[in-house]
Write a structure and sequence with these properties.
Structural class: mainly alpha
Order of helices and strands: HHHHEEEHHH
Strand content: 5-15%
Oligomer: single chain
CATH class of the largest domain: Alpha Beta
Shape: globular
Strand order of the largest sheet: 2-1-3
Radius of gyration: 18 Å
Number of strands: 3
Number of domains: 2
CATH architecture of the largest domain: 3-Layer(bab) Sandwich
Length: 198
Amino acid sequence: MEKFVLPALPYGYDGLEPHMSEEQLRLHHQKHHQAYVNGANALLDKLSDARKNKTDFDVKAVLKELSFNMGGHVLHSLFWKNLSPKGGGSPGGNLGKAIKEAFGSFEQFKKEFSQAAVSVEGSGWAALAFCRKSKHLFVMQVEKHNLNVYPGFSILMVLDAWEHAYYLDYRNERAKFVEAFWSIIDWGEVSRRFESNS
């Protein structure tokens, strides 16, 4: 089975300064994201060995831990790509129209998304998701990496609200980190995801 790997960042570790410091980004990417990659690979090896040797294992515990680590890997991989040194502003085109239609205005969407990020319980994420069936956009809070996910919805944009994402730069002021996020969001990448899913 092919192993998961830590994706390279599409910018340098100092590329998101001053909104995210080089030290913060390096720690987040190389330590925290790498830990989810390592955890997922170790669990896949464990499953493979158990199946090969026909040995019993705690299916519930292993699958829960695998979901957590794989969710961490997938969400972080999306997160890095939806940030850019040249980010910020507001989306145009079809995504901009869809946001206005769903939320009334970009400012209302920004307010709702920010509130989702600030208020997610414990460690979690804010996400913009798209339902292909209803053609609607939704804001979603993802607790940990794998709870409260809307099944089948495509995730277009994520913001990591775990303390490890901002504590070196913002200490316990999550709201300041969320505000800084709007200066580095890559609307081109989010729009590309929207177009490929709508």
